[in-house]
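Entry 14. Ran structure prediction on the chain below.
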Amino acid sequence: MALQLTMTCAEYDRSRPLIDGIVKAPDIDLAIHVNSDDRSRQRDIREGKFDIGEFFTGIYIADLEQRTLGLTAVPIFVKRMFRHSYIYVNKHSGIRTPQDLHGKRVGLQTWFTTTALWARGILVDDYGVDLSKICWVANWNEKIGDWQPPSWLQLEIAPPGAKLHDLLISGNIDAGITTETWAPFGHPDIDFLLPNYAQEERAYYSKTGFFPIQHILVIKNEVLEKQPWVAMSMFNAWQSAKLECYRWLERQRVHMTGLWYRSLWEEERVAAGADPYLWGFKQTRAEVAKMLEYAFRQGLVTKKFQPAQMFHPSMLET
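Output, structure tokens:
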């Protein structure tokens, strides 16, 4: 008899084959709850409402030191996105270059948000930004065990009910890092920090090979302790779903409702090959190591973890 488990994730082209039942996890009767609201989905997973789920990688990494979540990851990176275009400025702030962020107030959703983890790391590595010279304003106070901010970090919490978007428009913050799209078709006072983000992203990918990991698949420890094979079963199922997605995307070259989809698909194929959305431990080890390095440098954790410490042991040969 198949093992009955529950999973929650958002709807994506790569999760659709699982949601529709085209792809099934071997030996698992999987009940899937689709929830595209990231915050409520994370809350449900943290409260133990699902056996398997799509989770914020930044929060998972921040918990490695304390292991309070009761979750273990497999190297299925459910969501990847470049974040060069998710750093916004108020046009009247005087910010023209990344180093102009020094001495300014910069909003973010939380210090642990994966988008912010990548954006801050890239700002330091590629643009010479000093994170300690910025006053950071978090939209809400995320709790990770007994985490305390490092001594160099200037971190404020926004007033209850405040929205970063409104704070940026009013000038209460000078810039913001967010998962939301505030430009170019938004408020006239909001602009990109990196207006040429498309070129910046291509240069970054060419240099690093990283397509930044955002969300990761996690499984309850109590499930894996009793049935460790579930990790590989879910890994294989998501891999099969991704291959089905790739076949669908290739067909869309002549069907997609968009102007330049074919040329973009072909450009990506030249740049990244047939599998741009990398999963598995071995192929992504360097990128995971960079995330762990960023987490240590930015004070999410007090020691530097190794990529193998992120995942269930059965995943290390994937």
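The chain has ten helices and eleven strands. Will compare against last week's run tomorrow.
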